[in-house]
Amino acid sequence: MKTIMTQIPTLILSNSLRISMKDRVSKNEVSDFKKKWCDENQIIADIISNDLSEFFVPPVLDVGAGLGDIVYNALPDKKVICIDVNNVTEEDYPLADKHERLQIDFFDYRPTQKINTVFISHTLQFLDEDVVRLNDKITEIDPQSVILVVNKNNDFMGRLVDWSKNHFENPNPEISVAGFPKDYVVDRTKEFKTTLFCDSYERLAEQISYLMLIDLVGSTKSKLIAFLKNYLPKPEFIFNQEFKIYQKDEER
Ligand SMILES: C[S@@+](CC[C@H](N)C(=O)[O-])C[C@H]1O[C@@H](n2cnc3c(N)ncnc32)[C@H](O)[C@@H]1O
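That is the input. Now the predicted structure with S-adenosylmethionine docked in place:
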Protein backbone atom coordinates (compact mmCIF):
# COMPACT_ATOMS: atom_id res chain seq x y z
CA MET A 1 0.00 0.00 0.00
CA LYS A 2 2.72 2.46 1.03
CA THR A 3 4.78 1.87 -2.12
CA ILE A 4 1.84 2.42 -4.43
CA MET A 5 0.75 5.57 -2.62
CA THR A 6 4.19 7.15 -2.65
CA GLN A 7 4.57 6.66 -6.39
CA ILE A 8 1.47 8.72 -7.25
CA PRO A 9 2.64 12.17 -8.49
CA THR A 10 1.52 14.26 -5.53
CA LEU A 11 0.84 17.40 -7.54
CA ILE A 12 -2.26 15.75 -8.99
CA LEU A 13 -3.62 14.79 -5.59
CA SER A 14 -6.33 16.86 -3.98
CA ASN A 15 -5.60 18.71 -0.78
CA SER A 16 -7.90 16.46 1.22
CA LEU A 17 -6.33 13.31 -0.18
CA ARG A 18 -2.87 14.63 0.69
CA ILE A 19 -4.06 15.09 4.27
CA SER A 20 -5.56 11.62 4.38
CA MET A 21 -2.14 10.35 3.30
CA LYS A 22 -0.68 12.01 6.40
CA ASP A 23 1.35 14.36 4.26
CA ARG A 24 3.39 11.76 2.48
CA VAL A 25 6.00 12.90 -0.02
CA SER A 26 7.50 10.68 -2.69
CA LYS A 27 11.20 9.98 -2.80
CA ASN A 28 11.30 11.73 -6.20
CA GLU A 29 9.91 14.91 -4.67
CA VAL A 30 12.53 14.77 -1.91
CA SER A 31 15.29 13.99 -4.40
CA ASP A 32 14.29 16.78 -6.85
CA PHE A 33 14.19 19.39 -4.12
CA LYS A 34 17.46 18.32 -2.54
CA LYS A 35 19.49 17.57 -5.65
CA LYS A 36 18.21 20.04 -8.23
CA TRP A 37 16.80 23.16 -6.60
CA CYS A 38 18.09 23.63 -3.06
CA ASP A 39 21.65 23.56 -1.75
CA GLU A 40 20.67 22.73 1.86
CA ASN A 41 21.89 19.14 2.20
CA GLN A 42 25.51 19.82 1.26
CA ILE A 43 25.52 22.76 3.69
CA ILE A 44 23.95 20.67 6.48
CA ALA A 45 26.47 17.87 5.90
CA ASP A 46 29.41 20.29 5.90
CA ILE A 47 28.30 21.90 9.18
CA ILE A 48 27.97 18.49 10.83
CA SER A 49 31.41 17.38 9.59
CA ASN A 50 33.21 20.60 10.43
CA ASP A 51 31.44 21.76 13.57
CA LEU A 52 28.93 19.44 15.17
CA SER A 53 30.25 15.92 14.69
CA GLU A 54 30.92 15.45 18.42
CA PHE A 55 27.20 15.82 19.17
CA PHE A 56 26.31 12.87 16.93
CA VAL A 57 27.13 10.09 19.38
CA PRO A 58 26.50 6.73 17.68
CA PRO A 59 24.40 4.81 17.11
CA VAL A 60 22.49 7.60 15.39
CA LEU A 61 18.87 7.15 14.27
CA ASP A 62 18.19 9.34 11.19
CA VAL A 63 14.41 9.73 11.19
CA GLY A 64 12.92 10.34 7.73
CA ALA A 65 16.40 10.08 6.26
CA GLY A 66 15.24 10.46 2.66
CA LEU A 67 18.19 9.55 0.46
CA GLY A 68 20.44 9.33 3.52
CA ASP A 69 22.87 11.67 1.77
CA ILE A 70 23.40 13.95 4.79
CA VAL A 71 24.72 11.18 7.03
CA TYR A 72 26.52 9.51 4.09
CA ASN A 73 28.53 12.69 3.56
CA ALA A 74 28.83 13.84 7.18
CA LEU A 75 29.04 10.69 9.31
CA PRO A 76 30.43 7.88 7.11
CA ASP A 77 32.45 6.38 9.98
CA LYS A 78 29.67 6.33 12.59
CA LYS A 79 26.95 3.75 13.02
CA VAL A 80 23.72 5.22 11.60
CA ILE A 81 20.30 3.66 11.09
CA CYS A 82 18.40 5.51 8.35
CA ILE A 83 14.66 5.00 8.55
CA ASP A 84 12.04 6.28 6.10
CA VAL A 85 8.50 5.35 5.10
CA ASN A 86 9.67 5.38 1.49
CA ASN A 87 11.62 2.52 -0.01
CA VAL A 88 15.03 4.09 -0.64
CA THR A 89 17.60 1.78 -2.21
CA GLU A 90 21.27 1.89 -3.18
CA GLU A 91 20.09 2.63 -6.71
CA ASP A 92 18.72 5.89 -5.35
CA TYR A 93 21.76 6.73 -3.24
CA PRO A 94 24.78 4.79 -1.89
CA LEU A 95 24.98 3.61 1.69
CA ALA A 96 28.12 3.83 3.85
CA ASP A 97 29.44 0.54 5.27
CA LYS A 98 28.50 1.47 8.82
CA HIS A 99 24.98 2.59 7.86
CA GLU A 100 21.80 0.62 7.44
CA ARG A 101 18.44 1.48 5.87
CA LEU A 102 15.01 0.41 7.02
CA GLN A 103 11.71 1.17 5.34
CA ILE A 104 9.50 1.78 8.36
CA ASP A 105 7.29 4.42 9.91
CA PHE A 106 9.06 6.12 12.84
CA PHE A 107 6.11 5.34 15.09
CA ASP A 108 6.44 1.62 14.33
CA TYR A 109 10.21 1.54 14.82
CA ARG A 110 11.44 -0.47 17.82
CA PRO A 111 15.19 -0.19 18.36
CA THR A 112 17.10 -3.44 18.71
CA GLN A 113 20.07 -1.60 20.20
CA LYS A 114 20.65 1.47 22.33
CA ILE A 115 20.18 4.66 20.27
CA ASN A 116 22.27 7.59 21.50
CA THR A 117 21.24 10.29 19.02
CA VAL A 118 17.94 10.86 17.24
CA PHE A 119 18.49 13.09 14.18
CA ILE A 120 15.43 14.73 12.60
CA SER A 121 16.29 16.88 9.59
CA HIS A 122 13.30 18.50 7.87
CA THR A 123 10.99 15.68 8.92
CA LEU A 124 9.28 17.21 11.95
CA GLN A 125 6.28 18.45 9.93
CA PHE A 126 5.46 14.81 9.09
CA LEU A 127 5.58 13.67 12.72
CA ASP A 128 3.99 16.48 14.71
CA GLU A 129 0.28 15.80 14.26
CA ASP A 130 0.12 14.36 17.79
CA VAL A 131 2.84 15.84 19.99
CA VAL A 132 2.06 13.53 22.92
CA ARG A 133 2.57 10.50 20.67
CA LEU A 134 5.78 12.01 19.30
CA ASN A 135 7.16 12.70 22.79
CA ASP A 136 6.14 9.20 23.91
CA LYS A 137 8.10 7.73 21.00
CA ILE A 138 11.21 9.69 21.96
CA THR A 139 10.79 8.62 25.60
CA GLU A 140 10.56 4.99 24.44
CA ILE A 141 13.75 5.27 22.34
CA ASP A 142 15.42 7.26 25.15
CA PRO A 143 18.35 8.85 23.27
CA GLN A 144 20.89 11.08 25.04
CA SER A 145 20.37 13.75 22.38
CA VAL A 146 17.77 14.85 19.86
CA ILE A 147 19.10 16.96 16.98
CA LEU A 148 16.69 18.89 14.79
CA VAL A 149 17.27 20.77 11.54
CA VAL A 150 14.37 23.14 10.90
CA ASN A 151 13.49 26.24 8.91
CA LYS A 152 13.37 29.46 10.89
CA ASN A 153 10.37 30.77 8.90
CA ASN A 154 11.49 34.40 9.06
CA ASP A 155 12.16 36.75 6.13
CA PHE A 156 10.59 35.59 2.85
CA MET A 157 9.96 32.05 4.14
CA GLY A 158 7.80 33.62 6.88
CA ARG A 159 5.77 35.42 4.19
CA LEU A 160 5.31 32.13 2.36
CA VAL A 161 4.08 30.39 5.50
CA ASP A 162 1.56 33.22 5.98
CA TRP A 163 0.54 33.04 2.30
CA SER A 164 -0.07 29.29 2.60
CA LYS A 165 -2.15 29.73 5.74
CA ASN A 166 -4.23 32.40 4.00
CA HIS A 167 -4.88 30.29 0.89
CA PHE A 168 -5.24 26.75 2.27
CA GLU A 169 -7.24 25.28 5.10
CA ASN A 170 -4.58 22.78 6.07
CA PRO A 171 -1.09 23.73 4.97
CA ASN A 172 1.61 21.88 6.89
CA PRO A 173 4.79 23.95 6.81
CA GLU A 174 7.67 23.01 9.07
CA ILE A 175 7.17 24.95 12.29
CA SER A 176 8.53 24.74 15.83
CA VAL A 177 6.58 22.25 17.92
CA ALA A 178 5.87 23.60 21.41
CA GLY A 179 6.67 21.05 24.11
CA PHE A 180 8.89 18.89 21.91
CA PRO A 181 11.15 17.22 22.81
CA LYS A 182 9.77 16.90 26.32
CA ASP A 183 12.35 16.35 29.08
CA TYR A 184 15.21 17.64 26.90
CA VAL A 185 16.98 21.00 27.09
CA VAL A 186 18.63 22.99 24.31
CA ASP A 187 22.38 22.59 24.47
CA ARG A 188 23.40 24.37 21.28
CA THR A 189 21.89 26.03 18.24
CA LYS A 190 23.54 26.93 14.96
CA GLU A 191 21.98 29.05 12.26
CA PHE A 192 22.79 28.88 8.57
CA LYS A 193 21.51 30.14 5.22
CA THR A 194 20.48 28.14 2.19
CA THR A 195 19.15 29.02 -1.25
CA LEU A 196 16.22 27.72 -3.25
CA PHE A 197 16.94 28.55 -6.90
CA CYS A 198 14.69 27.39 -9.71
CA ASP A 199 14.65 27.76 -13.50
CA SER A 200 11.17 29.33 -13.55
CA TYR A 201 8.55 30.81 -11.22
CA GLU A 202 6.32 27.84 -12.01
CA ARG A 203 9.01 25.47 -10.77
CA LEU A 204 9.53 27.61 -7.68
CA ALA A 205 5.80 27.43 -6.95
CA GLU A 206 5.96 23.62 -7.20
CA GLN A 207 8.88 23.46 -4.78
CA ILE A 208 7.01 25.71 -2.36
CA SER A 209 4.01 23.39 -2.54
CA TYR A 210 6.39 20.59 -1.47
CA LEU A 211 7.72 22.71 1.41
CA MET A 212 4.29 23.73 2.68
CA LEU A 213 2.67 20.36 1.88
CA ILE A 214 -0.06 21.95 -0.20
CA ASP A 215 -1.38 20.84 -3.57
CA LEU A 216 -1.53 23.57 -6.18
CA VAL A 217 -4.83 22.98 -7.90
CA GLY A 218 -6.99 25.37 -9.92
CA SER A 219 -6.20 29.06 -9.70
CA THR A 220 -4.04 28.74 -6.59
CA LYS A 221 -0.94 27.97 -8.62
CA SER A 222 -1.27 31.15 -10.70
CA LYS A 223 -1.95 33.15 -7.52
CA LEU A 224 1.24 31.79 -5.95
CA ILE A 225 3.23 32.52 -9.11
CA ALA A 226 1.90 36.10 -9.13
CA PHE A 227 2.82 36.46 -5.44
CA LEU A 228 6.35 35.19 -6.12
CA LYS A 229 6.84 37.49 -9.12
CA ASN A 230 5.68 40.42 -7.04
CA TYR A 231 8.33 39.86 -4.35
CA LEU A 232 11.25 38.17 -6.10
CA PRO A 233 13.23 39.60 -9.05
CA LYS A 234 14.31 36.03 -9.94
CA PRO A 235 12.78 32.61 -9.11
CA GLU A 236 15.08 32.17 -6.14
CA PHE A 237 15.49 33.26 -2.52
CA ILE A 238 17.71 32.71 0.49
CA PHE A 239 16.19 31.32 3.68
CA ASN A 240 17.34 30.74 7.23
CA GLN A 241 17.56 27.40 8.98
CA GLU A 242 18.98 26.14 12.24
CA PHE A 243 20.31 23.14 14.06
CA LYS A 244 18.77 22.65 17.50
CA ILE A 245 20.71 20.24 19.66
CA TYR A 246 18.86 18.96 22.73
CA GLN A 247 20.33 16.89 25.58
CA LYS A 248 18.39 14.88 28.09
CA ASP A 249 17.42 17.02 31.07
CA GLU A 250 19.28 15.17 33.82
CA GLU A 251 17.54 17.18 36.53
CA ARG A 252 14.25 15.41 35.87
C1 LIG B 1 11.64 16.52 3.64
S1 LIG B 1 12.22 14.90 3.63
C2 LIG B 1 13.73 15.06 4.59
C3 LIG B 1 14.78 14.07 4.18
C4 LIG B 1 16.11 14.19 4.93
N1 LIG B 1 15.96 14.09 6.35
C5 LIG B 1 16.81 15.47 4.55
O1 LIG B 1 16.87 16.39 5.37
O2 LIG B 1 17.30 15.51 3.42
C6 LIG B 1 11.15 14.09 4.83
C7 LIG B 1 11.29 12.59 4.82
O3 LIG B 1 10.59 12.03 5.93
C8 LIG B 1 9.97 10.83 5.51
N2 LIG B 1 8.89 10.54 6.47
C9 LIG B 1 7.71 11.18 6.58
N3 LIG B 1 6.98 10.67 7.59
C10 LIG B 1 7.71 9.67 8.14
C11 LIG B 1 7.50 8.76 9.21
N4 LIG B 1 6.36 8.78 9.93
N5 LIG B 1 8.46 7.85 9.49
C12 LIG B 1 9.60 7.81 8.75
N6 LIG B 1 9.86 8.65 7.71
C13 LIG B 1 8.93 9.57 7.42
C14 LIG B 1 9.53 11.12 4.10
O4 LIG B 1 9.28 9.94 3.36
C15 LIG B 1 10.72 11.93 3.57
O5 LIG B 1 11.70 11.10 2.98
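The CA atoms of residues 111 and 175 lie 27 Å apart.
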